[in-house]
């Protein structure tokens, strides 16, 4: 919604909220980048920094919670303002989870750095790059209030699912080749899962952006990628 | 096609399935040369609260006053178009305006009890319309009306005292009791809470919600929160035009018109 409120301080508060989310998004993005670098470059110092910096994201999330409750109580927002405030509250939750998953990747990177590297797998960094791109796009969509961009991000999750499933199969083959790979591969598997979950949260954010811009949920059905889980309808039934 | 008729068509499919108690078609109001209300189409459904909102001078009170022909009392006011109550044209020449106003009651911005006792304030309408067969009948009407207006418990021991001695909120509920004493079908309220404190306002709002079961209510309010709290349908007027009309929930969460959005979010200017 363009145009300014008659009460200027209300505009300032709304833009403060947008800035908080943008800042939180920037931090979460940096956390993911740091965690992936720590993994790829086997950099334990960087991993430790990422783990320590997670508290900062949590702190901003608390600030967003307090601020949105205050806005709801004092401004009684409606229409786009209301959707924006509630949307910011939801997005802050997703960003907090994204940063948590990034910290978990960093923790596992620390462990992986203690053991010999497994056969170089390009799959994890490739998945990470795709998800980083998605996170960046969704944050741009939020700042620009661009629902077309949000829908584009939303559809990209299919690619993430496909890549994750491919990686899952690849890691299984390494484990079958040599049981000494199992520890490292399991950690890599969890790392891949964490990164895939980050993609899911980016998808949630895209849905929230669409709702806050349009006032209605996305009505299309999302293309689903290849899954490691079997289709329940294909499973044999006992009865 | 005007914005108003567009929004009318958007909601007309649903309106057909709900009984419209009052309908307005192409209603225009002129005060002398001033075109105060422009081609308004609106269906007011039975047993619902319809809120009319908009900035000062937008025509919402003018529209409200058309519904019980209060504009007849204003020199130079001219109303064109069709307004029906249960399908009957309320501007029909053969229609008795006094009877019409008994069917469509009104509560005003400032509580205006008669300088009479509490009892007589409520008994006034039933007396002049001959609604009570006996004094016991009349007493029953008065007590029931005061109860429905949520005032009886507070005044039952002082029914003979003047209505003007009550607090502002009590006076407004007395006026509502007076309006419902003649068993109207529709109650028009013109900013009924603007002179009341928040607690008295809450009581009146609670009352409006209860009255909805038996009456159709149209309320003009400057408080958008009040419109959001008490109404099922909201109409937004601007410069004499009905800009948007729809479910209150939708108007306050996802209005379709930019003007509505600007007004309800406080970006009007």
Give the structure's gist in a few sentences.
By secondary structure, chain A is an all-alpha fold.
Question: Strands, helices and their partners?
Answer:
The complex is a heterodimer of chains A (239) and B (269).
Chain A: H1 8-40, H2 44-75, H3 79-114, H4 123-144, H5 147-177, H6 182-214
Chain B: H1 3-17, E1 20-31, E2 34-45, E3 49-53, H2 60-66, E4 77-85, E5 88-89, H3 97-103, E6 104-107, H4 118-128, H5 135-148, H6 152-155, H7 168-180, E7 186-190, H8 198-211, E8 216-220, H9 224-230, E9 233-238, E10 241-247, H10 248-253, H11 258-264
Helix pairs in contact in B: 4-5, 4-7, 5-7, 7-8
List its salient traits.
heterodimer; A: 239 residues; mainly alpha; Methane Monooxygenase Hydroxylase, Chain G, domain 1; 78% helix; B: 269 residues; alpha/beta; Rossmann fold; 6-stranded mixed beta sheet; 4-stranded antiparallel beta sheet; globular
CATH architecture grouping of chain A: Up-down Bundle
According to CATH, the fold-level topology of chain A is Methane Monooxygenase Hydroxylase, Chain G, domain 1
Rg of chain B, alpha carbons: 19 Å
Structural class category of chain B: alpha/beta
Principal-axes shape call of chain B: globular
Give me the number of helical elements of chain A.
6
Classify the secondary structure makeup of chain A into a structural class. Answer: mainly alpha
